[in-house]
Amino acid sequence: METKVKIENLSKHFSDPQRGLVKAVDNVSLEAFSGEIFGLLGPNGAGKTTTLRMMATLMRPDSGSISIAGYDTVSEPQKVRRSIGYLSSTTALYPRLSPREIISYFAQLNDYPSTELVTRVEKLISHFGIQDYADTYSEKLSTGMKQLTSIARTVVHDPPVLILDEPSTGLDVIVAQKIHHHIFELKNEGKTIIFSSHNMGEVEKLCDRIGIINKGKLLAAGTPDELREISKKHYMEDVFVFFVREYEKEIGYEKKEAACI
What we know:
CATH superfamily: P-loop containing nucleotide triphosphate hydrolases
CATH topology: Rossmann fold
CATH architecture: 3-Layer(aba) Sandwich
Structural class: alpha/beta
Distance between the termini: 49 Å
Largest sheet: 6 strands, mixed
Mean pLDDT: 93
Strand content: 25-35%
Radius of gyration: 19 Å
Number of domains: 1
Helix content: 40-55%
Order of helices and strands: EEEHEEHEHHHEHEHEEHHH
């Protein structure tokens, strides 16, 4: 398998008036391959979103490196941006633009060939089943419609690497299943997908390999079965809690928390 994402010794620190130096990401290394869904999991504040933002060139690392599709995020950010589709949990749609206009706009932003643009947009509108509201202002769309539009916008320029941060949060089961189906299709096309979620059921369903991060540290990485074998737990929720709790015991976090109460 071809390595499409390579992170080596990645660190990002922040200064906080109350907590002092915060090691949001602390010496993290991992790889993801073509045709693979790699789940990056962690509790709130674990460093997961900071890692994704550095992958998307929205932040610069303090040390270490990130290579995406062979390009370095610091020295070749424009090439990286053309090689990724980034779906952030906080990125909204333009309220006074329709899905068709939004998808077209993002295709142009990413230099998609103008002679093929209309065909590409119409193909995605059909593929994601958004024909009935393709020309409706996005402010009038349901949450599920907005999310399908957001994913179409993310993939319109056909990038080899996708970064999906909480793509199905707040969606009903029917729309969530549609999104899962599209993610599997993208994987089968050979895309590398970095997938973040707090829903352990969908993580278990979708991800080929999983990395668990907490307090900036990558605690474990492997296939679901490999992580089950190490933790001696079956359900992914229990596997996740095992690694998080074991690390907190190791650094004495539980005692620090008790002392603060």
